[in-house]
Amino acid sequence: GTSAAGARAASSHTGSLAGREAAADALLRQCGVLRVGSIEEMIHVLQGLTGTAMPRGNRLCILTNAGGPAIMAADAADGHGLTMAAISEETKRRIRAILPPEASAENPIDMIASAGPDHYESVMKLVVADDNVDMVIPIFVPPLIVEPLEVMRRITSVARASGKTVLSVLMAEESYYQRIPREVPDPVPFFRYPEDAVKVAEQLNRYRLWRERPAGTIPVFKADTKKAQTVVDAKRRAGGGYLGPAETLALLDAFGLPTVGQVVVPVDGDVVSASAGIEFPVVLKVVGEKIVHKSDVGGVIVGINSSAALRSARSAMETSLKKAGVFGDVSGFLVQEMVAPPDGGDSRQEIILGMAHDPKFGPLLMFGMGGRYVEILRDVVFRVLPMTDLDAKEMVRGIRSYPLLEGVRGEARVDIEFVEELILRLAQLVHDVDGIQELDFNPVIVTPARARCRIVDARVRVAAPQG
Ligand code: ADP
Ligand code: MG
Asked: Quick one: pLDDT band at residue 167, thresholds 50, 70, 90?
């Protein structure tokens, strides 16, 4: 993958974050393809898929005769969909009865260096029989006195009899890697390093989740597709480009995407009398097709509480725009209802929804944390169409900042189901209306109450007519 597409479409957030890599990743993920980072990993995953049972869960037990590699394995498993199995008290008690007092019966089970084939066999038997364990990674670093082939034989026979997933790690002298396949009948997969085995465990678990995943459904929302298509077609006939504020509003309304009350005021108009129908507090914004990031040039003023403040904001904005050298690009001003003021006692997050076209994969939908820092935080995920309700759920839960939506530090949870609905409505819009090249809703302000979730900034670019 490359990110060449990024530079080309840098005028939208979605375009600049998308790129071929994101498209390929989204498509493969949605189709249940296990993606690997190297040819070596591919071979390892094949060993796992063909050489041991598929896991029935994600609970991993590590057992070892050396502490270091087991800790490396436990660290590698952390945060990749696996959890360390909580082995039962009964199993622990039995393990303690077998091992010397210096050993640890806690997962990772450290049998210490004196462990031989018999210890591996008996402890493995207890571990695979524990209902809390789905996968086992036995690690063996041969001390001089213990025979590695015998340990591998015992691990293999317990594994085969159990039907559980076993991925072994042998950190031995070179010749053993050749001897195992010849001298151990049908050995379980063995890897040289703990991280390799953990990666395979992760991939097998991913495959399990994919197999167990219900298909999901593609919901159909009531929408005025015709009206939306008319808006896009008119722009296309006019040569394409960004939709103006009124056209954008019509498009979003047609698909039930929540907008805010707003009026557009011409450059020489009076902002106060034009916006008489909008209640304070309001937000004043510059309008101009070429002005991509309005705040960068002083083109957004929020929290305006009175007519006098609105009038002085208008003149302050003119000064900033002139200073930034963009006043010539201004086609008007927008007075918008202010959504969920930060001090309104309401939890409030800014998310981004977007779409960019990939030349090979078609439209790519993006969801992530929004606001001014999207490109810096890069906390976004992509999906290709079609999108099911399940895809939307996974998308929302797929960003690092998801806990912020759930509510942290005493904040309430935002309406996450509504966020999922917005993603699906956008998917329907992108699928059913021809000619949108890319779009960004940034931000969509989301709150615990559905009625206060609003798209406050939308940029929609229509493709130029063909030919
Ligand atoms: P731009 O992205 O072009 O800089 P935006 O319209 O996205 O301009 O506004 C920048 C920021 O101002 C938003 O991220 C949001 O925090 C705030 N904002 C803009 N419009 C509103 C609104 N109607 N209500 C509340 N906050 C708003
Ligand atoms: Mg914006």
From this structure: very high
